[in-house]
Amino acid sequence: MAASKKAKVRKGKSLLWVVVIILATIAAAFFINKAAMSHASNFQTSRFVSEGKLRSILARQLRMTKEGVQWLHENHHIQSTDSLRLRYSFQTDDSLKAIKLIRELKKRKYKAELEKYIFEKAFFITGKTTRIRMAEDILAPWTKSMCELGYEHDCEFDGWEADLKPH
């Protein structure tokens, strides 16, 4: 009878350990999931380009567009009726953001590629447009649209330069 009682006690202790292990596993899964969700929400709210930064980028790029068009007219005798390809660039902090932006740029028939600088933890998107007229009334809205496209994908539009090579 004592052996039967010991077997019941051992069976009870084994069952108790199983319950403890299950509860510990559930608790661990809960805390791991909570930490992962916290990290995910931080990731989603952490933007590379804020609305304030967009306004600053837009003002700077529109000023540079005006100056760039004037410089092309004065120094390279490019007329507002001439059409050239533009080299452009963006930067961001995440490769997925960069890849999504590249897809959008390619829909516009632009060339686009991704460059990564490991030490800076930065991703650069560079490319070339189709031909665009070198008039401020064309380039200013185009510049604005590139800044906004960058913002939509949490990337900063770094600017453009005219490709003066004959094609």
Structural description of this entry:
The chain has 167 residues and is of the alpha+beta class. It folds into two domains: 1-46; 51-162, RraB-like (Alpha-Beta Plaits, 2-Layer Sandwich), CATH 3.30.70. Helix content is 60%, strand content 19%. It contains four helices and six strands; from the N terminus they run ααββαβββαβ. A hairpin with a 4-residue loop joins β3 (111-117) and β4 (122-128). α2 runs antiparallel to α4 (136-152). The radius of gyration is 29 Å and the shape is rod-shaped. The model is unreliable at 34-43 (pLDDT under 50).
Summarize the SSE layout with pairings.
Blueprint: H1 2-45, H2 51-76, E1 83-84, E2 86-92, H3 95-107, E3 111-117, E4 122-128, E5 132-133, H4 136-152, E6 156-162
Antiparallel strand pairs: 1-5, 2-4, 2-6, 3-4
Helix pairs in contact: 2-4
What structural keywords apply?
19% strand, two-stranded antiparallel sheet, 2 domains, alpha+beta, rod-shaped, Alpha-Beta Plaits, 167 residues, 60% helix, single chain, four-stranded antiparallel sheet, 4 helices
Short summary of the structure?
The chain has helices spanning 2-45, 51-76, 95-107, 136-152; strands at 83-84, 86-92, 111-117, 122-128, 132-133, 156-162.
